[in-house]
Design brief:
This protein is an alpha/beta fold. It has ten helices and ten strands. The protein has helices at residues 48-56, 78-83, 101-108, 115-128, 130-134, 145-157, 175-190, 202-208, 226-230, 233-238; strands spanning 10-19, 22-32, 37-42, 63-68, 71-72, 86-89, 163-167, 194-198, 211-216, 219-225. Strands 6-7-8-3-9-10 form a six-stranded mixed sheet, with helices on both faces. Strands 2-1-4-5 form a four-stranded antiparallel sheet, covered by helices on one side. A hairpin with a 2-residue loop joins strand 9 (211-216) and strand 10 (219-225). Bound molecules: adenosine-5'-triphosphate and magnesium ion (MG).
Length: 243
Amino acid sequence: MSRDGRDKLLELKGVSAHYGSIRALHDVDMVIYPGEMVCLLGGNASGKSTTLKTILGVVRVSEGELYFRGKRADNLSTAERIERGMAVVPENRRIFPKMTVRENLEMGAYLRDDRDAIREDLDYVFELFPRLAERLYQQGGTMSGGEQQMLAMGRALMSRPQLILMDEPSMGLAPLFVERIFEIIKQVNERGISVFVVEQNANVALSIADRGYVLQTGEVVLSGPAQELLHNEAMTRAYLGEM
Ligand SMILES: Nc1ncnc2c1ncn2[C@@H]1O[C@H](COP(=O)(O)OP(=O)(O)OP(=O)(O)O)[C@@H](O)[C@H]1O
Ligand SMILES: [Mg+2]
């Protein structure tokens, strides 16, 4: 039932999801164990963002079951899922552009009232991203793309999540910065926070993830330990060869 005797943190069992009559996910099985970093790969329109949205409750599970921390989660609202320990770093960052850096970070902690712990988490975010501490009163929307990515990650960390869902954190960033962001994702993961990251950049993601899933037109076509996927021929042909 579990990997290394651990309970599952997140499980999708035969999950399908639809937009109207269009099926975007079909019979998807996925598991994330506590402390794991798992990447979700796949071409454009394969259903990666939909998978994250379904986990978060932005898109409804139309068939199958979703479990989070051992309990059925597919009937919970997004707010309830966040309260139970999910956090998201959405596609294209989507920070609050009119709010300052500080206000954006505070929004991440809006469901909490443990002031001392919030302060500790803020210090941790500043340690990871010193730039945010330097720009506390700058409007989020005026930060550079890379800085907004840091802010979106910082905001997610401010809810002290058990699972962070990230949608293409490397999008639009220069290669050196992509490496830096993934180093930080790894550090966050080493702190014990599980990470589920959608990434087009298969090489970078697989080089630091524990496991990966590959989606094609809404179905899981390949999954396994990251190192195996890195050397899998079908995988190599489908992705790495093109990069
Ligand atoms: N709100 C929506 N309404 C209708 N169809 C949608 C909606 N959102 C996504 N889809 C469709 O669902 C399919 C999967 O989209 P999704 O955004 O999950 O793909 P993706 O793998 O994240 O792609 P990309 O790499 O381009 O971000 C696509 O065919 C898309 O057009
Ligand atoms: Mg997407």
